Amino acid sequence: QVQLVESGGGSVQPGGSLRLSCAVSESLFRAYAMGWYRQAPGKQRELVAIMTSGISTNYADSVKGRFTISRDNTRNTVYLQMTSLKPEDTAVYYCNGRFNGRFAGDYWGQGTQVTVSS
Hints:
This protein is mostly beta strands and about 120 residues long. The chain has strands spanning about 5, 10, 20-25, 30-40, 45-50, 55-60, 65-70, 75-80, 90-100, 105-110, 110-115. β7 (about 65-70) and β8 form a beta hairpin. The protein starts with a strand and ends with a strand.
């Protein structure tokens, strides 16, 4: 089993910034994709940002230019830097990892709440 633990959520005013962290119990070199998803009340979970093969990144159109996904292989941690936050970014944010090898599978963190409000 691979464990993912998110942190860094909270409340922020519009225009503010937050950095989410996802600590992973397994080496990131075994992950072929790491991503961040979010789910707002009454809505389906949606992809926010994804990093594949440790290099290629893709973002939802709604966050392009504002959010950045990155990783620190020495810390087995994935980050989501969020800037210029808007009220519509309010959601529970989930870290996702897709792994090969001994722990092959699709894993999720427990989620962290982000609230953007004045």
